[in-house]
Design goal:
Shape of chain C: globular
Organism (chains A, B): Rubrobacter xylanophilus
Order of helices and strands of chain E: HEHEHEHEEHEHEHEHEHEHEEH
InterPro entries (chains A, B): AAA+_ATPase, ABC_carbohydrate_import_ATPase, ABC_transporter-like_ATP-bd, P-loop_NTPase
Strand order of the largest sheet of chain E: 2-1-3-4-5-11
Chains: A alpha/beta (263), C mainly alpha (340), E alpha/beta (311)
Bound molecules: adenosine-5'-triphosphate, magnesium ion
Helix content of chain E: 40-55%
Oligomer: heteropentamer
Pfam families (chains A, B): ABC_tran (PF00005)
GO molecular function (chains A, B): ATP binding; ATP hydrolysis activity
Structural class of chain C: mainly alpha
Radius of gyration of chain E: 20 Å
CATH topology of chain C: ABC transporter involved in vitamin B12 uptake, BtuC
Largest sheet of chain C: 2 strands, antiparallel
Largest interface: A-B, 60 and 60 residues
Radius of gyration of chain C: 21 Å
Distance between the termini of chain E: 37 Å
Protein name (chains A, B): Sugar ABC transporter ATP-binding protein
Chain lengths: 263, 263, 340, 340, 311
Amino acid sequence: MERTATPVIELRNVSKYFGSVIALEDISMDVRAGEVMCLLGDNGAGKSTLIKIVSGVHPPDRGSLLVEGEEVSFSSPRDAMDRGIATVYQDLAMIPLMGISRNFFLGREPTKGAGPFRRFDVKLADRITREELDKIGIQVRDTAQPVATLSGGERQSVAIARAVYFGAKVLILDEPTSALGVKQAAIVLRYIARAREQGIAVVFISHNVHHAYAIGDRFTILNHGRSMGTFEKEEIGLQELERLMAGGAELERLEAELSGSGE
Amino acid sequence: MERTATPVIELRNVSKYFGSVIALEDISMDVRAGEVMCLLGDNGAGKSTLIKIVSGVHPPDRGSLLVEGEEVSFSSPRDAMDRGIATVYQDLAMIPLMGISRNFFLGREPTKGAGPFRRFDVKLADRITREELDKIGIQVRDTAQPVATLSGGERQSVAIARAVYFGAKVLILDEPTSALGVKQAAIVLRYIARAREQGIAVVFISHNVHHAYAIGDRFTILNHGRSMGTFEKEEIGLQELERLMAGGAELERLEAELSGSGE
Amino acid sequence: MTQATVGERIREVGFLRRQLTRPELAAIAGAILVFAFFAITAGDQGFLTFGGTISYLQVAAQLGIVAVPVAMLMIAGEFDLSVGSMVGAAGIIIAITVTQYGWPLFAGVLLACAVALLVGFFNGYLVIKTGLPSFIVTLAMLFALRGLTIGFSRLITGRTQIGGLSEATQGDVLFPIFAGEVAGIPVSVFWWIGLAVLGTWVLQRTAFGNWIFGSGGDPVAARNVGVPVNRVKIILFMCTALSAALLATIQVMDAGSADVLRGELLELQAIAASVIGGVLLTGGYGSVVGAVFGALIFGMVQQGIFFTGVNTDWFLVFVGVMLLVAVLFNNVIRNRASKG
Amino acid sequence: MTQATVGERIREVGFLRRQLTRPELAAIAGAILVFAFFAITAGDQGFLTFGGTISYLQVAAQLGIVAVPVAMLMIAGEFDLSVGSMVGAAGIIIAITVTQYGWPLFAGVLLACAVALLVGFFNGYLVIKTGLPSFIVTLAMLFALRGLTIGFSRLITGRTQIGGLSEATQGDVLFPIFAGEVAGIPVSVFWWIGLAVLGTWVLQRTAFGNWIFGSGGDPVAARNVGVPVNRVKIILFMCTALSAALLATIQVMDAGSADVLRGELLELQAIAASVIGGVLLTGGYGSVVGAVFGALIFGMVQQGIFFTGVNTDWFLVFVGVMLLVAVLFNNVIRNRASKG
Amino acid sequence: GCGQQGGQQEGEGEQGGGGGLVPREEINIEFVTHASPDPFWSVVQNGVNQAAEDMGVNVNYRELDSYDIPQLQRNLEAAIAADPDGMVVSIPDPDALNDKIREATENGIPVVVINAGENDWRDVGALTYVGQTEYDAGVAAGERMAQEGVRSALCINHEQGNITLDMRCEGFEKGLGGQVKQIAVQPDPTAARNGIKTALRQNPDVEGLLTLNPGIADQALRALEESGRSEDVTFATFDLSPSVLRAVSRGEMLFATDQQQWLQGYLPIVLLTNYIQYGVRPVNTEIPTGPAFITEENAEQVIDLSRQGIR
Ligand SMILES: Nc1ncnc2c1ncn2[C@@H]1O[C@H](COP(=O)(O)OP(=O)(O)OP(=O)(O)O)[C@@H](O)[C@H]1O
Ligand SMILES: Nc1ncnc2c1ncn2[C@@H]1O[C@H](COP(=O)(O)OP(=O)(O)OP(=O)(O)O)[C@@H](O)[C@H]1O
Ligand SMILES: [Mg+2]
Ligand SMILES: [Mg+2]
């Protein structure tokens, strides 16, 4: 597990507004190679907005974004991808009416042939898609099946498999396990662990404290668009993390009510 | 906690095919008033398809559906709603460009005035929406904000609040907590418990064994479109349930790999 | 953690700016721009006179009468390309029944309305039952209806233009309702305003209006929460056809004649007016007020050129450029308003 | 738990049935139905002869040449209403440069193509930059381009119809390429087939084709995964305009004349052919082959009535009804195939 | 009755025009007809432009995109609102238009009717009528063709529903005194040519063919050629173009009707200018511009004029 000095991704005093809504205010954060940074926070805290800034979907309204120490301003997600940043969006970024393998390779199609005869290598795409989905525990019957007809978990798996396959330097996962079954979720966590070992920087968003605590090296907690600080795993316990995420004592009362409730 | 003899909902030998795909094969299941039936199973097992049959979205290709002992065939979701069945769909069934409160009441608008002057009571709708979302822990700034601009969890909360508000006899929840923060998830579980107390039959789908075990009375497990049986809570332990859900030993191996992983 | 938190995340945004993000207000801005343009370039050549105003208002009104229900149908996610042909058909029905068969005017109008409702129902029913895109169903209806109009008109009268209704209409009690004037303003303008108000009320203030938005925004989701999507769409198809019959009645009374080509390309203009007014082609979003101002922009541009004295050869260039400028202006306004 | 499990959940579905669920094959079924209708009702009146076949193939080809790129643009989620005007404009450019300024034919054609590419680029650029719906941008272009054509044609020649190109064109080396015949079949048919093959190849077999589907299916998602959506759309707008210039060249050479009104309503027909062929109006789905057969249905229906000997007063009824029947038949086939 | 009306007109004319004090460059004339951008009206428009130049007056020439009577009504209203010194109008639909035109004359605007409205110009109080009705032109064409012994013919209508084209066909039938079948074709050249070809095959007995526009005539000529009927079918067209004239001069066509519509554009401007300036006008008469035919004998002479858009 290597850790370099300059962070792969760094955000400095970033703010983002949607009309009158303050989605993010003055956020600073960094992620280094070979570490998993967990972004935690309540619903609507601004997590998805934050990672959309990193992956080039939204430009920040204020503040700066640095990749490998160099200030960048992405004009499109393509720019971010070209710098090795792969993202699983919470709303998945898939084309409902397109087939699975076409979706898998959308924007990065493998080609064969040369010159004017360069063409989309459909066979290769189908094979890779099938293999990668197999690895994550999803068997597809037909790689041309429209994504719209997949189950929620199957769709999420395709998005994850795609990001992992293409993720070069940074892997960003926005609630990747939310719709997954126990087995698939475990596989995804293992993916993340493996990516970290390979020196990839991972940003991981989850509402599942157990998932997050199991895999995270550092934790940045957002609350209503503002950062509540970043904590090393050593600094903080599971209980403490949970309280920070849920934002208070109210939760404990609730949990008590539900007799025997786990988690 | 009352339990009646005739189930509120009963499925008898139901099958459903999509083209060449067997989504469900020969499923039987029943839910009684005042109980929480958990539907468990891997991704793509057929859970969502099953509840779509109950809520009138798909007609079954074979088998029959009974509501309060009477055989029915819903020609539209409206029919199911008229029989007191409220559903939170996994893909949420919301109109992205419509405002929150208009979405909340879509199809069941409160009206005021009479005759040709009967009109949508927008004020009332706004007030109720705000209240119900407040209860679930979501503060909305503007009830006319388009749903598309809500965060994933906020959107899910709106769908849940809506179903709970309108749920008369049967409440069906398809992975309602998947995008929710710890606090909101706990609130939803408490909702379910309260609904059960009021004698409502609840069908609850989750991949989170802890959530399911905490709240479920009975568990029906689907695997590749086929039922693996229904178990009473007393019959089965958490561990056993987890193994059934994940479908084998592979999971344990995986979990061992991820040191200290919870869940 | 309640109201305070909400407040915490809201920035101050000016009232004007907030208002301008509403789709219809941008269309109004476009209309004002076009008006200002003509007022400056052609103000001294009659554009600002009462007669000049009436001349473009009437064009806008006739388009607007159809554009209001067309916009609502588009918000519900469907097209009706057959409205133009329906205008022609309804006009010929009235003219033939009155002049050839000696029916009283009101009976002819009633028959035209009945046929329109039937055609609208048929359109809607076919779209719903077959799941075919309404574009293609109503395109077929566009051809078929125009063809029936030409065929029957030639069969019965041997011609494609039927005149001689002036005597039958001008004394009729219906005349002031459809073709009269109030204080020099043609009643079609009032019909337009009336329909706009009614449409806005239905869309914004009734449950049915909510269903319209739902049906267009995501028909599957809307159906899943219990909206009778099919019923909504069929009713709206009937409304568009009925509005075409209304326009035909107005035109027949106003002109005292009918011809089989009346209403040609009206369907496109109505759709264009709606889109100019901010209605989404894909459905689920828009407003009646927007369509009304879209029609007004269309009317002003079309008639305004008259007063500028520009060579008629360049008329269409002018229409195209003005249209684009008006819509671009809408857009600038909207973006300015919604941005930081 | 791998292949076995997959097999477990698949039912047997016949080969034919599986093939028929493909969108283009349903359109083929519609074309066959229309063909069968005419073969039965007018087979002994020349419909089945070589000459009869050419007469509808040529009409279908001219529509199809434009319908192919229009279908691709629609799959990418945009409309181009300006193709019809572009045909008129390109025709007049060729005619004026050749007859008035004595340019060689190839230079006129090149200029027309250059202008078309410029117009296409402008359309695309405007749609992308402003975020306005392409419907309204290209509608404005429809007016503006037609207006410029009328204006310049009258300014330079004082007429709206320019003839006398036959002498200039018939000896030219370009003539056999655009207006010649091969074994009695007009070359426009080969252009049509060539473009269809090219379009299908691009759409189905290249990365660019995948981007087209993505751009139309969900532009935001496509952009998020790195598809250069803007570039895709601008290129396609340029293709539709270029195809219009190609059609204009063919028509000018074939007819020996140009007219400012050429291509009127072509945009609607091209869109209709695409929709008949299964292209979704909302984008993201469809095929070139479908559009090709949509054009064929249109051509057969339009020319077929002359063979049946039906009074042409009923021409449009005929077009409407046949269109509807063909599309309904598509639909029945499709539903049968995809059901149980 | 006519004389009386004429007298009234003169009275009004005195207020509106007279005096000879209006400088020509201040005269504004609105030219509002059912014209569309087709070859026929192009020539009219050229006549208008020439007259405007010769007279030194301003003319606003207005046309329609397609045959649309309500739009024409609006255009008339707009023209009246612009308060011009004179107007030129056509009356293709008297019921719809007479009231509006009367409104103009009653407001003291001198009006000249052209092209359509032969029976209505007095009624609306216009100064005069210049032109020939489409119906009469059709009758003349029919009679001319009947002289060649044609008993049955096809009339090719390229814009179904446009009343002026209907009138041409109707008149043609009357003049021919035989059987005339209307065939509706698309305005698109290829579709029109192939449609005409098929129609010729379907009607093997027809002896005559009439087209209503020179563009369609070009295609009909090829259709005749390609179906080998050039010899036995007598072919003629409405309106001129260089290629039509060439065909006429080669004897491939019997004739092309020439309504001399240049005059329908030119004369009204001259008449109005003189009336506005000096109050002088032709009294109680109409000015027919047709029928005139271009045949093999005189075709060559007009080709150049046609190329310039004068014939
Ligand atoms: N386009 C937009 N317009 C207006 N408000 C927006 C927009 N996008 C997001 N927001 C608002 O910004 C806030 C942050 O949203 P974001 O999606 O980043 O939350 P999140 O932390 O990802 O929540 P969740 O855990 O529920 O996914 C939310 O309150 C949301 O309503
Ligand atoms: N419309 C459809 N056409 C074809 N296949 C479909 C369709 N809908 C669902 N399926 C298939 O049926 C199977 C069951 O889907 P379903 O959505 O019921 O799964 P699920 O149990 O809800 O899974 P998840 O936990 O991932 O949500 C899946 O394999 C899916 O691909
Ligand atoms: Mg989020
Ligand atoms: Mg599911």
